Amino acid sequence: MTGLILSKQLSEITRNYKFVKDTEGMSPAQVYKLIGRRENLYLKMTDEKYRGTTYDVEREKEIMLWLRTKLPVPEVLHFEQHEGASFLLMTEAEGVVGSEDYEHYRDPKRMIRIYSDGIKDFQSINTSDCPFDNGVKNRLDELDYLLSHKLADVDASNWEEDTPFDDPSQLYDFLQAHQPKEELVFSHGDFGDSNIFIRNDRISGFIDLGRSGKADKWYDIAFCVRSIRNDMGNDNKYLDLFFELLEIEPDWEKIKYHILLDELF
Fold first, then answer.
1. Which of 123, 137, 41, 47 has the alpha carbon at shortest distance from 85?
2. pLDDT in tens, 72-83
3. Domain ends where: 56, 73, 91?
């Protein structure tokens, strides 16, 4: 049993699928893989207390619909609100999730190329009609909301080793006082190998899009820098290759800011 309270309509849609809970993610959303005879689906649910935040699957649904002709994202099959929760049913992304694509441990340069390709895919999207804002001010406003409603799960013991703060309130004050001037592009918002799918050495899908929207161009890049350091160590040749492929010089001040901001989410 899943423990989910499904509507009659959603129960009917999913009645021939086996529910397997996904325990990998760290967000407050509940995610289930629905294993079927011919295809697999994913069901994602968030409590109404997260409505209006970037955790809300209704926001993710709207972003996926907006992106469906722009990037390879799952297809939205069904959305509803029922018994104080929002439910999003979607197709399974094609390919192998990057975190389980073990070839990149044997060939780190391949994964760096994939990261740079993904960054370029997102930043090439025209944002002139984009209704989704995930800039620094919105991130800090959301953080205020989560903290005031006791919805933030901040654990300083999980912070990066080089984070120069021990206390969340000190970090929060720093982030408020040092907001960077943003160069707005379209951003994934949680860019990393667990949210990228790969097939034939190319990106075949993106998932977990609730934080996508207009944001500073260094936001996603910062997440990649963190992943490269964590997975490949501090050998600068990998970061040098990453920025060479992006054809830009790193702005370390902004990169550090976005990594620090993510410590509070």
1. 47
2. 999 999 999 999
3. 91
Query: What would the two tokens of residue 231 be?
Result: 């997975």
Cβ-contact 99, 208 below 8 angstroms: no
Tell me the backbone φ, ψ of residue 214, rounded to 5 degrees.
Answer: -70, 125
Give the number of domains in the chain: 2
Q: Which secondary structure element, helix H or strand E, spans residue 168, and what is its range?
A: helix 168-177
pLDDT in tens, 197-213: 999 999 999 999 999 99
Catalytic, out of 190, 208, 216, 220: 190
Is residue 156 pLDDT above 70, yes or no? no
Q: Which two tokens stand for residue 151?
A: 């919805």
Q: Is 84 left (phi over 0), alpha (psi -120 to 50) or beta?
A: left
pLDDT higher than 90, residue 233: no
CA 165/CA 154 separation, integer angstroms: 13
- φ and ψ at residue 15, rounded to 5 degrees: -65, -25
The residue from 48, 66, 91 where one domain ends is: 91
Cα separation, 180 vs 190, in Å, equals 19
Query: What pairs with residue 91 in β-bridges?
Result: 41
Let me know if 190 is a catalytic residue. Answer: yes
